[in-house]
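Holo model, protoporphyrin IX containing FE. Inputs:
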Amino acid sequence: MAAASSLAFDPWDPGFLADPYPAYAELRARGRVLHYEPTGQWLVPHHADVSALLRDRRLGRTYQHRFTHEEFGRMAPHEEHEPFHALNDHGLLDLEPPDHTRIRRLVSKAFTPRTVERLKPYVHDLADELVTALVEAGGGDLLTDVAEPLPVAVIAEMLGIPEADRAPLRPWSADICGMYELNPSEEAATRAVRASVEFSDYLRELIAERRKEPGEDLISGLIAAHDESDRQTGWQSDRRTDRGTDRLTEQEMISTCVLLLNAGHEATVNATVNGWWALFRNPGQLAALRADHSLVPSAVEELMRYDTPLQLFERWVLDEIEIAGTTIPRGAEIALLFGSANHDTEVFRDPERLDLTRRDNPHISFSAGIHYCIGAPLARIELAASMTALLEKAPTLALAAEPERKPNFVIRGLEGLPVIV
Ligand code: HEM
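Output:
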């Protein structure tokens, strides 16, 4: 059995966080599955394995649809953390079929290519507006001035969160996301619990308001799906579930809205600033992009590969599996290393090189299988819109100071990105 603990892989080490990619190369050379003592997980670093396991139904994001905590050999979460788990465990991302299938079908209606395409002019106008303000100010922080307000406004608009209510969305999201890091501290858990309570209370009230006065937004759409199926009209239920009808419970609605609000901006913010930080460190590539804006689509894909915004996703082993001769028992946890998969020499030529013209780029940053990112088409529009606006309106954009890295591993990002124009 291969062990990873003697390697340079150390998600709590600032040196590793500054550049995890050499350690990933070491992991890939060492084996296809490695036991990692500090988290008790099995690390999977190769692209082919990550890609196959994301589609393997013997693994799941949760086990609670099949086993109790005791049956699965796991401790039940602390009672004080219950508000976080009530919220987290009922959102689309942390459900498995049949619940996942039922909710994904409802939410997908808001993310069809046509619906998302219709948002394009709004996203581009907003990007132009934000970048114009940055230019007028002579520079600023690319994170707080452009990268953050763009996706936050778009997803808040889609869900119908009034503008006056949007300020706490980012801090709530950041506190909840703290729980997605490896071995979160008790302090992080306390913050996540508080944010879960406040965010849930806020949405419960908003849902009640929208129920009285529906709008054109996604929350009103989800409520309609819920209430329509009550009347047995529309949303015909050809797929019976445990709950008897094709609808969302109130908790699922709250959890899915929180998921959409958080997932709808967190990774996009980081992809934007990680991307520009990579461009500043690769001036030749930035010059090529400035000379040819038609590279924007392939640049967006390459930057998401080159510095992967979400580095790791976990899966529970629901039924024993074998990976490269190692048997992984039911109850074990597998850590799929997206950042490593995106730098695998078996798939990418010269993966440590940023190449904005890279054509064959099957990066895994949006995942694969049933949990494949529902917002990927929207994220691509947002990333391309801010990049285009910055290229067009701030052609001399430059780094004003070295950015500070966030001390997180799973959600990879910067504290800010100071720029001048
Ligand atoms: C650069 C930006 C983004 C990245 C890198 C990203 C990445 C991902 C990944 C890796 C997953 C699956 C995790 C897993 O397999 O365990 C996922 C799921 C999801 N993402 Fe994204 N995402 C981005 C933007 C967005 C946006 C803009 C939205 C919504 C507006 C969104 C909504 C979701 C949702 C709802 C899921 C859960 C899907 C399911 O479980 O069926 N994401 N995302």
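The two ends are 53 Å apart (CA to CA). The pocket of protoporphyrin IX containing FE is lined by residues 61, 92-93, 104, 155, 259-260, 263-264, 267-268, 271, 309-310, 313, 365-367, 371, 373-375, 378-379 (CB under 6 Å).
Archived with the compound record.
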